[in-house]
Amino acid sequence: MPRDVVRVAVLGVSHPPANKWAKRMVRPAALMADVPNLEVGALMAEQGDVRTYYMGDHAVVLHSGETAHYIDNLRAAKPSLWVSCDNGEVRLVTADPYEGEAMASDPERLVEALAMPHAVATKINAFIETHHVYEEFHKRKRVPATSPHDPRAPRVLSDNEKWVQTRGKAGLPPKGVS
Amino acid sequence: MLRAQQWSLIAALLVAPPDRDMLDLLSSLTGDDTALGQAYRILAETAGSADVDDIAREYFELFVGVGRGELLPYASFYLTGFLNERPLADLRRDLAMMGVERAAGRFEPEDHIASIAEVMAGLAAGNFDASVLGCGAAGEAGFFARHLEPWAAQFFDDLAVAPSARFYRSVAEVGRIFTDIEIRAFALEAKAHRTSGPSAQRL
User: Fold this and answer.
1) Do B163 and A158 touch (CB under 8 A)?
2) Span B2-201 CATH architecture
3) Of B107, B172, B180, B99, whose CA–CA distance to B144 is shortest?
4) Which of A135, A146, B75, B140 lies deepest, with the highest CB count within 10 Å?
């Protein structure tokens, strides 16, 4: 299955705690398409008590089977990448909105939907154009027994509906042998 | 008792292909000039001239097959179009109430025509008691009306026209005529019951 990998840099912002019992924590706040030459955890900016840290770069893996989800993502008002953190470390960055929202249902995890950098959106668009296969949505319904598309098996199997051995002992060579 | 024997015969022929002894017994059957008697005479003639291996092969083509046999002799299939559906569940519930259960080592679902025929034989011989069944299905007539009458005739018709059926065509003939007789007999019995009870006096 075709895959593509795009790397993004994750920036985290840490606000001063709102009360004296809370601790400072770094939340992912922005993404960069260009990976800076910095160490993970480096302080990038400090404005008053608000500090911006570099949380490292992470791979966004694009799978050809999920192009429909990427299309949904790019059509949204704000195309996003979902960043999921465990214990202050980035574990997953995904462009699949349904995977991202599924991660967000875990209260132990810190999941943020961050604006997708334009360069990443361009790459995802190119990936979609190469690999997307359009599938028409087919709503399955019960069909009446009188319909020609009746799924029921025939009451009496006729001779031409039976399985007949044609290969091996019966004459033709086995499959794959010419 | 005769009815019990007829149901047993149908069950025995449909549960497995007959062996040589059984064919010899069948070929000694005689019949009078009624439709059922003639059907039995034809069955005896066919059994006398048939070969055991041919019949086993025919049974395989009809009821086992590769993938599936030509026929699916299950109540659930005939009534709903699918196997193991609600008719099987209804039958299992009724059998459980009657205290009848599948013998160890038998793996066919209970709604196979042969097992229902065997239950009918037990009911006709008085070995089983269907009076515990409620909701209009009580008694032998009720059991028959609920589990066999809606589809047995259709099944025997299909057996008669199945492409591989030779010996089983004569079995189908017997089964079809006997089922018709049973349906009419139960209807007569119900009519007699309706016109003889205390409620009939008021009419």
Assistant:
1) yes
2) Orthogonal Bundle (1.10)
3) B180
4) B75
